[in-house]
User: What shape does this take?
Amino acid sequence: MSKKRSSDSPPECRIMPALTPLTPPPATMSTATRPHDPQPQPPVKPGNDECCHSGCTFCVLEMYLEDLAAYEDALRAWQQRQQAAATPPARKRVRTARKAP
Assistant: This one.
C-alpha cells in the first residue's frame, strides 16, 4: 500500500543539510571594535549538494540568500556605528554675553 501525499502539503526535503561551523570573516576594517558591539558574522554558504532541488518550502539556498541580505544590512549598520564611535564629537563653542560699555 503506497502512501499518497496530499496535494496541498509542501514537498519534503530528501537531504538533510549538513551543519558546518561558522568561520570568522577576514578583517576588513582597521579600526578597533568596541567590545560590546561585535562585528556581525556572515552566514555559512550551503554546499552544492545540500539542496535537493525538489522545491522545498524551506530551501537551504533561499534561506541562505535571506540570511546573507540580513547579514549585509547588519554589517553596514555595524560599520556606521564603528565610524561614528571612532569620530570624536565636535566641541561646542560656548559664547558668553558681553557687557555693553
User: Anything to note?
Assistant: DSSP finds one helix and no strands in the chain.
